[in-house]
Specification:
With 416 residues, this protein is an alpha/beta fold. It has 14 helices and 17 strands. The two termini are 20 Å apart.
């Protein structure tokens, strides 16, 4: 693969120095240096995130909001500071618009049950695209079953692209909500979300964007986007698992009933009546994932300290190099060739099942994702049971991609 020219590396971007901040990247897997190319599923944690969680657990752990003692006050301050960091990170208008949830999936379900379910009637429509993750399909199917509404699906083409005109043509007077991914987790396609949000807004349609695959790769300004809801997960952006964010326009969140009942989401409870708390507490019932939220805040700090433009340029160079290298491999077909993609490549290799390929690559210390990627309708469209997916982060290297190509060639020879 040496005849493939390396894409220009951003001169200000020191990948080796960044890698030293991620302890797991120094480990061996099956005696080989780890090449972690499964960042679309979950990115690794830097020392700053690990240390923030460790410091909380060792020195500040207590339940939040309810205690007058020192530890409770410290834990509350750390937790709420993370909310402010997220607000600034995505350029929300108010901290009341930041709701902490378990992840993107819970965020979408919250909107489905608290916003859509009380509103929808038989004959109403929810519009999504064919590219969606199951988490942006199943909650809407459930709401349609509950309300009699109809789920409408905008098509994709053979490149895995969603075209603006095709989606806009399906926005009818019956469309009450439009939900789509910012970036496809299965193919890497970047959707034209700004134009789609604007078209929906012009028709009075509420919008939700699944940003799970976008938030680690792109600068995010929810006010500039103009969406009503935006959902993402901490673990995709170098933070802990089990925590995520629902951004919602404050006016909409104020109008929505609580999704779950319990402690913290109340102001007063009697057996006759409960008075609900205000935002954001109204949607955060019970004891939250305090350490996870604090870790998310540390991940935001970490990302904010990066040269984000240089990081994006490096990820783009990785994608270009991987695409060029993999296209040279006989029998390999890249699935998803949209003109605008984020940092991942899905592919199949003739004669090698993706799961077998993943196992062989693991023997070489290379971690990729294999399967349907929680996007079965995408696999059905391409008439495939599964793909292999290599997804990149700013700490990945060109050498790791060359190792991936060599591992695929080894698999081809084994199954020849």
């Amino acid at each position: 693969m040496n005849n493939i020219a390396l894409a220009a590396r951003p001169p200000s971007f020191d990948v080796a120095a960044l890698r030293r901040q991620f302890p797991v990247l120094a480990r061996l897997v099956r005696g080989k240096p780890l090449a972690y190319l499964d960042n679309g599923a979950s990115a690794q944690r830097p020392n700053a995130v690990i240390s923030a969680v460790d410091d909380y657990e060792r020195h500040h752990h207590a339940n939040i909001h309810r205690g007058v003692h020192t530890l409770s006050q410290e834990a509350t301050a750390l937790y709420e500071a993370a909310r402010d960091k997220v607000m600034e990170f995505i350029h929300a208008r108010s901290r009341n618009e930041i709701i902490f949830v378990r992840g993107t999936t819970e965020a979408i379900n919250l909107v489905a049950q608290s916003y859509a379910r009380p509103l929808l009637q038989p004959g109403d429509e929810i519009l999504i695209t064919h590219l969606e993750h199951h988490a942006n399909i199943v909650p809407w199917q459930m709401v349609c079953e509950q309300t009699g509404a109809t789920l409408v699906v905008a098509p994709i083409d053979a490149h895995g692209e969603v075209h603006f005109d095709a989606v806009a043509a399906l926005m009818s007077p019956r469309t009450r909500l439009f939900a789509c991914a910012h970036v496809s987790n299965a193919l890497g396609t970047v959707l034209p979300v700004r134009r789609l949000i604007a078209a929906a807004k012009a028709r009075g349609i509420v919008t939700l964007i699944d940003g799970a695959q976008a938030v680690s790769h792109m600068d995010l300004d929810v006010q500039e986007l103009g969406c009503d809801f935006y959902a993402f997960s901490s673990h995709k952006m170098y933070g802990p698992t089990g925590v995520g964010v629902l951004y919602g326009r404050e006016q909409l969140l104020e109008s929505m009933p609580p999704w779950q009942g319990g402690g913290e989401m109340i102001l007063a409870v009697t057996f006759a009546k409960t008075t609900y708390n205000g935002l954001p507490n109204k949607f955060e019932a019970g004891t939250p994932n305090i350490s996870g939220v604090i870790g998310l805040g540390a991940a935001v700090d970490f990302l904010q300290a990066l040269d984000r433009d240089a990081a994006r340029a490096h990820e783009t160079a990785l994608l270009e190099h991987a695409t060029a290298v993999l296209r040279q491999i006989p029998g390999l077909r890249i699935i998803g060739t949209a003109a605008e993609k984020a940092g991942l490549v899905s592919f199949v290799v003739g004669g090698v099942h993706p799961h077998d390929l993943g196992t062989i690559l693991d023997e070489d210390g290379i971690a990729v994702r294999t399967g349907h990627h929680c996007a079965m309708p995408v696999m059905d469209f391409f008439a495939l049971p599964a793909t292999a997916r290599a997804s990149f982060a700013f700490y990945n290297t060109f050498e790791e991609i060359d190792r991936l190509a060599a591992g695929i060639e080894r698999a081809r020879k084994i199954f020849a």
